[in-house]
Amino acid sequence: MPRFCTRCGREEDENTKIIGYLCVDCFVRERDIALVPRRIDLVICPNCGSIKISDSWLPREDFKNELEVSISIILSSKIRSVEDVDDVEIKDVVLKDRDHKLFAEVRIGGRVSSIDIYKTYIVEINLIKRLCPVCTAQKTKSYEAVIQIRGYPKLSQKRIREIKRYVEDLPETLRNFISDIEENRWGIDIKIISKNMAFSLANAITKRYRGFIAGVTDEDVRISASGKVSKKIISLRIFDIKRNDIIEIRGSKYLVDNVDDQEIVIRDGGGNREVISFEELIKLLKRK
């Protein structure tokens, strides 16, 4: 005699599976196949659109601009398995707007005794708008590091414009880490929200514009009458050498006779000429 469902009476066949004493439909209707929260918080930055996942803020582009992806990630860390149900996972998330509230229809899949089962849960999405740390820092002009870009022997206005344009044309995800760009009589100061990002940008600038990191220091900056905070100062030297410039090497002054992509030709006060590669010039200047 074939087994049958004690709730609806359906008999077991190749299309109707029986789990214990219930068919799959009745089993899913009467039992949870996972513990799913009824409500979750979705924290979004109203300025840049980044989304908070656990303790990290991630660009919305990481989720292909689809809220369903971020909701699935958040729910994955909150869903718990129940007894006798294995391989529980989220199969699909569909967002619904009901009475000015946001809900997610979450389809959960699992297995019981090698039988695939599915159930849809309704989860309310509590949408919270909060500035992310990057946008907060931009708004308050706070920063962790300063890239001081100086020239050797000095930075021309042309080179200043080139570097500023390069920084301003960075992808938005990188540009968002820039708190401020200040031009002064010595060159350019770029204030960066993240120390790690500051080092990455400093290396990119020196590589693109033929330069080097001359030094890294910590500087205490007063933020109030009673407190100071340490800022990382990254000093760059960008080569901006032209023919007939006067430069100082090894404590002596030289006239630049010629400049190409690999080296410079200099002449001392006695007329003696010397060829120095940029690689060697960096070593000499770092010894100062």
Structural class: alpha+beta
Number of domains: 3
Number of strands: 19
Fraction of residues in β-strands: 35-45%
Write down the Rg: 32 Å
In N-to-C order, the SSE pattern is EEHEEEEHEEEEHEHHEEHEEEEEEH
Count, helices: 7
Detail the poorly predicted runs: none
What gross morphology would you assign? elongated
Q: Please state the average pLDDT score.
A: 90
Strand order of the largest sheet: 12-13-11-15-14
Notes on the protein architecture:
By secondary structure, the chain is of the alpha+beta class. It has 3 domains: about 20-130, no CATH class; about 140-240; about 245-285, no CATH class. About 20% of the residues lie in helices and about 45% in strands. The protein has 7 helices and 19 strands. The protein has helices at about 25-30, 65-75, 135-140, 155-170, 170-175, 195-210, 280-285; strands at about 20, 20-25, 35, 40-45, 50-55, 55-60, 80, 85-100, 100-110, 115-130, 145-150, 180-185, 185-190, 210-220, 230-240, 245-250, 250-260, 265, 275. A 5-stranded mixed β-sheet has the order 12-13-11-15-14. A 4-stranded mixed β-sheet has the order 4-10-9-8. Strands 16-17-18-19 form a 4-stranded antiparallel β-sheet, with helices on one face. Strand 5 (about 50-55) and strand 6 (about 55-60) form a beta hairpin. The longest helix has 14 residues, at about 195-210. The chain is elongated, with a radius of gyration of 32 Å. The termini are far apart. The model has no long low-confidence stretch (mean pLDDT about 90).
